[in-house]
Design brief:
Strand order of the largest sheet: 1-2
Order of helices and strands: HEHHHEH
Helix content: over 70%
Strand content: under 5%
Radius of gyration: 16 Å
Oligomer: single chain
Low-confidence stretches: none
Largest sheet: 2 strands, antiparallel
Number of strands: 2
Length: 126
């Protein structure tokens, strides 16, 4: 899959994850498609650029807390998307945690499906 297609798919998957979080919790409020699109774009860019830098800088803290601080970094990425995107609001710590879990789960499932889809044609040729 080309870079452009992967970028659009990742953007769509993040938008789907945000929509699912909005549907599951009343404390997550996302109004309008632009909020989903901008929120998904910010989340994708933040996860690709800012999150790895923060993870390296805080690696000792992540190790000492047995990975719990990595959850804090993920919450910060969701918070950044909420702060930048219009009409996007999350209220409450546990709602942030739930949103992080939903975003992770949807992205994990999408990655598994896409990896399986890319491998399947190669296997059928053998």
């Amino acid at each position: 899959m080309s870079f452009g297609v992967r970028l659009v798919v990742a953007w769509g998957v993040n938008a789907l994850a945000l929509w699912l979080a909005d549907a599951l919790w009343s404390s997550v409020t996302i109004n309008g498609w632009w909020a989903y699109i901008i929120g998904a774009a910010v989340l994708g860019i933040a996860n690709a650029v800012i999150k790895p830098i923060l993870a390296v800088l805080t690696l000792p803290l992540i190790i000492v807390t047995l990975g719990f601080f990595y959850l804090v970094i993920n919450i910060a990425m969701i918070g950044l998307a909420e702060w930048i995107a219009p009409n996007f609001s999350i209220d409450g710590f546990w709602t942030y945690v739930g949103t992080v879990v939903i975003v992770w789960l949807v992205n994990w499932i999408a990655q598994r499906v896409l990896d399986e889809g890319e491998r399947r044609p190669a296997l059928s040729r053998i």
